[in-house]
Amino acid sequence: MARIQKKYRENVESEFFVDTTCIDCGTCYWVNPEVFKRVGNQSAVYQSPKGEESEKLAHVAKYACPTNSIGHRGNKIHPPPFPRNLEDNIYHLGFHDRKSFGATSYLIKTKDKNIMVDSPRFVRKLANRIHNSGGLHWQIFTHQDDVADGDKYKEEFDSKIFYPKKDRVPPRLKVDTYLDSTKSEIQLSPDLLAISVPGHTKGHFCYLYKEKFLFTGDHLCFSSHLGHLYAFINHCWHSKQELYDSVCKLRDYKFSYVLPGHGTPKKFERAKDAMDSLEKGISWMEKNM
Ligand code: SF4
Ligand SMILES: [Fe+2]
What residues line ligand 1, using a CB cutoff of 6 Å? Predict the structure, then answer.
């Protein structure tokens, strides 16, 4: 729980505050950029929420924060808002974990199964809500950095784990199916395709659902600063050349909603707009690598 005694000096006066335990994972500023901003080496409240929607999103940020560094001094109790619907049958699971440096995990609810993409912190309230919405059948992982409490969710739900074969497996994670990245793509179900995108790590995969939602882990994300999609060339643990090639490879796929591990989920009007943004990212990489 955030402590007022540790309140960061850069917060403005507000019901919300950030304390000095913040690890600067960036989650609160993509969830509610109106209220939270990076000041110095961490986040601070720089403006009180204006209106109901902004207040709601400030509470989303509070419960998503991996270090419980966001405090709220109001009297009303706000229950955790997760799983939080983003669009269609796609949900933000919240409860980010510091073990994955606050990476975002998602839930896809299909007719016959619920699928977790990467993993959040294990929180009993969240597990109960997943039970109430039919349980958890599959857990699919993009790469080794975003496993968090994946092993605990498997224990709770006896779900089936899909994991990149060439990435390091955390000791407690029991993998059911290894995804072989010598294959360019693997059809996991009629609507769900695993695409091998090495670069950030050796075995990194993206997941494309219904030719619309692209779950990208740490491969690709939208930069509001640059105004287009891009890849983390400065946080590349395996090969920048392979990262570049894997970004170019996405030209062959249709998608219009990019859901990354770090950074804001980005919805494009049309698949063509996503492709234009990808092309800008590729040109940017060519100049900056
Ligand atoms: S979500 Fe928490 S840890 Fe991450 S930047 Fe915000 S306050 Fe800091
Ligand atoms: Fe990563």
Answer: 18, 22-28, 36, 42-43, 65-67, 69-70, 102
